[in-house]
Amino acid sequence: MPKDQRIPHPDDLAALMDGMFYESDEKLIIALDFGTTFSGIAYCFANQRDTKVVAILEWPGAEGESAPKIPTLINYSDADSGEFAWGASVNRMQDNIVGVKLLLDPKQERPLYLPTANVKRTIKSLPKPPIEIAADFIGAVYRHALDEISKVVPHDYFKICQKHFVLSVPAVWSDAAKNATLQAAKIAGIFPVTLIKEPEAAALYTMHSLDFSLNIGDAFVVCDAGGGTVDLISYEVVELSPTLQVKELVPGTGGMAGSLGLNQRFAEAVKNLVGDDQFADLRKTKGFSLAEKSFDREVKRAFKGDQDEEYFVNFPMASLDDDPDLGLEANCWRMTGTDLKAIFAPLITDILRLIDDQVKSVKIKRPGRGVTGIFLVGGFGNSRYLKACVEREYPDIQVLQPTDAWAAIVKGAALSKLPKQASVVATSAPKHYGVEAWKIYNPILDRDVPSEIQRDGSKRALGMTWFINMGDEIQRNQDIKFSFYRSIDEDYTPKDLVFTDTLYECADQHAPRHRSRGNKIGPNCKVTADLRSVSSDRFKRRVDKEGKPYYDVSYDLVVTLKSALMTFSLEVDGVSMGSVQAKFS
């Protein structure tokens, strides 16, 4: 492997950036769109006048070809030594690791129209855990970005700039998957790093570029159709001056209807075309790899949806039996508009359903006003056929497809950290969030659920207390307090002041009173609160029904939605103290 392809140990990467932080007020924002199929970097200098967001266009292994993104591929030549090739430098004919991003959220439901995948088997076959592979890729991309940026500014200026890193994540991902992405960046030695939801980044960039034509009250559905996932969030313009400000209108939705599914369905279509026996030999050849590349880079991007369109996909050096009736002759498949519509159909149907859910929800939230426009961004969002389908479905709503839709997310991620540019001021809670606790027993509502007599003699039932409800408008950086109290013996030990609570999430339309009565309810994370540093003067002394003294320890778990992931702190009597550690499920 060439020396410039060797990736340093995270400690070396951290050393590379050591001394670059907080030496001046100059700031360099570096954003990474870590995608399922392609990834890209954009950066900007926050303190420059007329700041512009710039995408990295030069990549190792892609000499002579400028592109804002490189394939999200990695190949370990020797897992023990840690050496690997990544991005455009990977030989596509090798057994490469593809779609490692999706393995960070293995619980994400796969649609029925995609080939089944044994996620546990896939993870077991990897040379490293997915989070470590993601860390290797993220570290490599960020290191390359630092090298490229250092070439365009004076060395001394580059050295004194504070470096702030941003990572985009799907809005529909679980908090556990978002946290795994954050941990991968930390393993790679990238710090300080924040997360941003992909459709949020896309919305900021697209609306910022269109602010000359926006009006307060305009509402847009942003459909970020990428390689693995499709994310949708709707936004309303709340301010134009002095800066553009938008807020989420309804909870984000999405699913795994990304363009990677088109590639998988293309492979299935080829298998149906040539038969199982021929396909088993074909997919081992370079000819099949070239055909896949032709479909991915040319055919699916050019398809407009016309029945009379024709595309020719070659399988060089193959020995396929001719079948003129199906368009297969001389190792070349003449794909028709009908063939391509069959490949696209289930994914298009899924995306239209997701858009429709958002449009209807916005109309309910804004009676009489509805939706101003629909933004299509991301790699799949750049599809002309997808745009035509959406326009046909919504003839009265303008469908916008930015010219740089492919780079909208990464540019928006960088833009989000610039002062006085554009910002999302409020989000809409995607789920209900709460805890399970003892509450006053109700003989009607709490029948057949666990109950017990407490120390104070009251009968209580175990039920849910919901602090955040689905659809709640939450101001960005707003602190939401989850109040807890625990009873401890008078002769407590320091160990008794380390409490663990489970934060639950629920995707049911109506949050249940009891955990057992919810259909889509489960743990979000376990939060460990350490109150050993809290003075006993802050505890309330009580006496139980038998005259035995004990203490009630009251505290607030403070949840803040500063970015795509919830952060936690701890307060006692309104004073921040103690420590909190969250372990996501």
TrEMBL record:
<keyword id="KW-0067">ATP-binding</keyword>
<dbReference type="Pfam" id="PF00012">
    <property type="entry name" value="HSP70"/>
</dbReference>
<dbReference type="GO" id="GO:0140662">
    <property type="term" value="F:ATP-dependent protein folding chaperone"/>
</dbReference>
<keyword id="KW-0547">Nucleotide-binding</keyword>
<dbReference type="InterPro" id="IPR043129">
    <property type="entry name" value="ATPase_NBD"/>
</dbReference>
<dbReference type="InterPro" id="IPR013126">
    <property type="entry name" value="Hsp_70_fam"/>
</dbReference>
<protein>
    <submittedName>
        <fullName>Uncharacterized protein</fullName>
    </submittedName>
</protein>
<dbReference type="GO" id="GO:0005524">
    <property type="term" value="F:ATP binding"/>
</dbReference>
